[in-house]
Design a protein that fits this description.
This protein is mainly α. It has helices spanning 2-29, 34-37, 44-54, 60-72, 86-121, 126-140, 143-157, 170-199, 202-209, 214-243, 245-251, 257-266, 270-298.
Length: 304
């Protein structure tokens, strides 16, 4: 187990280094930020002075090495726009994104698990058909379209929820439904298929022959055995929610990392872009590492 942990930690570090190369390169592809930041009346000499102050006049490999060495020390630079440490700015917005992702995941789980189990137990029934329709529609619905429709119906027409912002729990309902919609459909489909596989296994047939009540077989034994791939997928899906909250935060003006990234990209604010993507990527990598370790603990064959 120790060898497996060390190997996975090494892979995580290598992946994180690879992410720094991608983040640094893609941020530079957005263009030169000086054009957007300096006043319109600035001269060419002023622009060159500004680029020199930000270190943008140096070769790319020097800029990357400076970015990497500073990142390893917890320094991701100062925001071009706000003139504050980029990492502090991102960490200040992180709780809002975590809150939205956690509530979305909780909502998706509460919806997906019961209907997935029911669809497997009542295979071929109306519940099963409805669950499959729900899974198909849920996974094919664009997030931005769903968010706009929810705002139009429940905020504009019915006036039940705020249209945007963060404050009371009412502000959280529509963004959480929008972000968790795809996950609930995907988890419901996986729960159904995992439960069907377990329900047809030999040990379930043996328990039925032993006279155990169907409710005990389903909830105590079948669901427990089917839960390993479901838990793994849910953990990975939480990482996807963290990184995929950009569109939802934009639609609902939710003050999280997604909003910050969009604003930073429009201003070519390299330090904020790099800090936001690196924080999200590291969270995702740590979550993957935790899931792999948990999975290997539950099933030792995965270590080899």
């Amino acid at each position: 187990m120790l060898t497996y942990i060390v190997r996975r930690l090494g892979q995580t570090v290598v992946t994180a280094l690879f992410v720094t190369v991608i983040v640094f390169s893609l941020a530079r592809l957005t263009g030169d930020p000086t054009i957007l930041i300096v006043p319109t009346e600035a001269t060419e000499q002023d622009i060159q002075f500004f680029r020199q102050q930000l270190g943008l006049d140096r070769p790319l490999y020097e800029q990357y090495w400076s970015f990497l060495s500073n990142t390893l020390q917890g320094d991701m630079g100062v925001s071009f726009r706000y003139r504050v440490p980029a990492l502090d700015l991102v960490l200040d917005r992180l709780p809002a994104t975590l809150e939205l992702a956690f509530v979305s995941m909780l909502l998706a789980t509460l919806i997906a698990l019961p209907i997935g189990v029911l669809a497997a137990v009542r295979r071929g029934s109306y519940i099963d058909t409805g669950t499959r329709w729900f899974a198909t529609v849920g996974q094919s619905t664009p997030t931005f379209w769903l968010g706009l429709m929810l705002i139009l119906v429940f905020s504009v027409d019915l006036r039940l929820f705020p249209t945007s912002g963060r404050g009371t729990w009412l502000h959280l309902v529509l963004p959480a439904i929008t972000l968790g919609w795809y996950s609930s459909a995907a988890i419901a489909r996986l729960t159904r298929s995992s439960m069907l596989e377990v329900m047809e296994s030999d040990f379930v047939k043996f328990e039925r022959l032993s006279g155990l009540p169907e409710r005990v077989i389903v909830l105590r034994h079948a669901l427990r055995n089917a839960s390993i791939p479901i838990i793994t997928y849910m953990a990975l899906q939480f990482g996807v929610l963290l990184s995929g909250a950009v569109v939802t935060e934009r639609v609902f003006a939710w003050p999280g990392i997604g909003q910050t990234v969009v604003a930073a990209i429009s201003m070519r604010d390299y330090p904020v872009i790099q800090a936001a993507v690196m924080v999200t990527a590291i969270l995702f990598l740590l979550l993957n590492l935790l899931v792999d370790l948990l999975y290997s603990w539950l099933d030792p064959r995965i270590r080899y």
